[in-house]
Write a structure and sequence with these properties.
This protein has two helices and four strands; from the N terminus they run βαββαβ. It has 61 residues and is an alpha+beta fold. The termini are close together. Bound molecules: iron/sulfur cluster. Iron/sulfur cluster (SF4) binds at residues 5, 9-15, 31, 52-54, 56-57. Ferredoxins are iron-sulfur proteins that transfer electrons in a wide variety of metabolic reactions.
Length: 61
């Protein structure tokens, strides 16, 4: 499973808090998915996607 943060992140930090195993802030201060989503992190990654206030996170198989 892969996650991607599209343009438009407002740096709220929700995804980084929900799933730090996948999301972090990059040098520009916006969130990025820095690794593939391991099976044990899928639930947290989906939660991060669903809770993003601007819906810029995509998750695909
Ligand atoms: S939850 Fe959405 S807006 Fe908030 S930091 Fe993550 S990608 Fe950015």
């Amino acid at each position: 499973m892969k996650a991607r943060v599209n343009d438009g992140c407002i740096s709220c930090g929700a995804c980084v808090a929900a799933c730090p195993e996948v999301f972090r802030f990059n040098d520009d201060g916006v969130a990025e998915a820095y690794t593939d989503v391991a099976s044990e992190d899928e639930e947290a990654a989906v939660e991060a996607r669903d809770n993003c206030p601007v819906a810029v996170i995509d998750i695909e198989e």
